[in-house]
Structures are given as structure tokens and as C-alpha cells.
Design brief:
- The chain is an all-alpha fold.
- It has 1 helix and no strands.
- The longest helix has about 60 residues.
- It starts with a helix and ends with a helix.
Length: about 60
Amino acid sequence: MVKVATFFAMTLGAFVFWESMDKVHVWIALHQDEKQERLEKEMAIKRAREELLAQAKQKDSLA
């Protein structure tokens, strides 16, 4: 009986561990995706800002 209970407990523990690791991996992947999207947005904003500054500089030099 003890062997059956131990086997059941270890199986349940392994299942809980496996499911929690799966959720952790999903959370990490989502976090990395969000971070990548944020970096891409920041780079797009930086490029747009640099283009606007370059255009403003050209207008100032022409005027």
C-alpha cells in the first residue's frame, strides 16, 4: 500500500511540476515577445524622430 501511495504521490508531483514548467515556459516566451515588440516600437519611433530632425535641418539650411 505504501508503494502504491508513493508511486501515486510521485506521479502527481511530476505532473504538477511538468505543468508548472510548461506555464513558466509560456510566460517566458510571452514576456520575450512583448519585450521584442517594445524594442521594435522604440526603434521605429527613433527612426521617425531622426527623419523628422533631418527634414527640419534641411529646411533650416534652405531658409
